[in-house]
Task: inverse folding
């Protein structure tokens, strides 16, 4: 069960990373669109104007859609992590503190801590 949740969280994180890359690409396209609009105003180029408008409008739509999708993915990650925590808590595992580990290392000897006595 925990392994399934870990796999789900990894998949969601991969999806979130793809959304971030798409967001960066859309913002770059928006910058290109603005540059094309500036070129069209200075040289009165109709093709630059059309390409610039299309790039800016397409980028705005893509950024908006992508942000909504990213928000849903982040919510999914948080829910899956909460379910994973619940499953782990329900296992009622014993925790071992630093004293337990240190005592075990002293009794068996360690390269980091010389055995005394």
Result:
């Amino acid at each position: 069960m925990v392994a399934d949740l870990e796999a789900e969280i990894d998949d969601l994180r991969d999806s979130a990373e793809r959304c971030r890359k798409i967001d960066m690409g859309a913002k770059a396209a928006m910058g290109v669109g603005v540059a094309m609009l500036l070129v069209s105003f200075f040289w009165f180029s109709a093709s630059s104007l059309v390409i610039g408008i299309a790039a800016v409008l397409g980028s705005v739509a893509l950024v908006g859609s992508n942000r909504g999708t990213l928000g849903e993915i982040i919510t999914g990650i948080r829910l899956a992590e909460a379910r994973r925590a619940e499953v782990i808590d329900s296992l009622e595992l014993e925790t071992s503190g630093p004293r337990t580990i240190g005592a075990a290392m002293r009794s068996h000897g360690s390269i980091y801590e010389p055995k005394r006595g």
The chain has three helices and no strands. Residues 11 and 77 are 9 Å apart (CA to CA). Residues 46-90 form the longest helix (45 residues).
